[in-house]
């Protein structure tokens, strides 16, 4: 109950503060918190939303937009050189520097593309998601979208990098085999020891861009994961300290709890 109330409060607060009526292009993420974001936007009424187009990050997001009677548009139709005014999305974990683990809903690839296409990215999350360092509360691992035929090779490399028991995300009951994303890919969840921020090096001794015996700084891990052959995208987002773990992405404006 408390969690749902917190998600709703965060969503309505985020829309109130970050959806300007003058906006015309709005990105909509995936997951359960973003459901409340769409509720908050729909509650503004057609007087505000009629002039806006909403850009989904996958099948669930598309359904949310349509069910709310909002105008659906696609990133593939975004005119060259233009950006979304704002994108709202959830997260699985948020650290002190607004770095995010995303992908718990297996929608991370399109989520990152939409987020990176926005002038402003607003992460909406309840109190459970905030933790000092990524990997502290979200123990399932960093979600990584991979080409199925490369999955065994990616798992090998992740183990070499110190991931503890990385595995292909199994399908839900009623679906034999692995989860298949909206893009026809698989998700590997790769647990790592909680990540350090580059600024932690004084106490942890692990300087920015490095790892020490399987303990990584966020930037170093993001740079390495994205280069593994077969990896399409990784569920590590952003950094307010100039750490762009999502290349070219806008830094998050705020995370609401
Ligand atoms: O897949 C994602 O990154 C989603 O944003 C997600 O994990 C957040 O989900 P929740 O809002 O249902 O917690």
UniProtKB/TrEMBL annotation:
Q: Name one GO molecular function term.
A: ribose-5-phosphate isomerase activity
Cellular component GO terms, alphabetical:
cytoplasm
Class in the EC hierarchy, top level = isomerase
Pathway listed: Carbohydrate degradation; pentose phosphate pathway; D-ribose 5-phosphate from D-ribulose 5-phosphate (non-oxidative stage): step 1/1
Organism classification, top ranks? Eukaryota, Fungi, Dikarya, Ascomycota, Pezizomycotina
- NCBIfam families named in the record: rpiA (TIGR00021)
Spell out the family assignment given in the record's similarity comment.
Answer: Belongs to the ribose 5-phosphate isomerase family.
- The entry's keywords: Isomerase
Protein name per UniProt: Ribose-5-phosphate isomerase
Which reaction equations make up its catalytic activity? aldehydo-D-ribose 5-phosphate = D-ribulose 5-phosphate
Keyword Zinc part of the UniProt annotation: no
What EC designation does it have? 5.3.1.6
Alphabetical GO biological process terms:
D-ribose metabolic process; pentose-phosphate shunt, non-oxidative branch
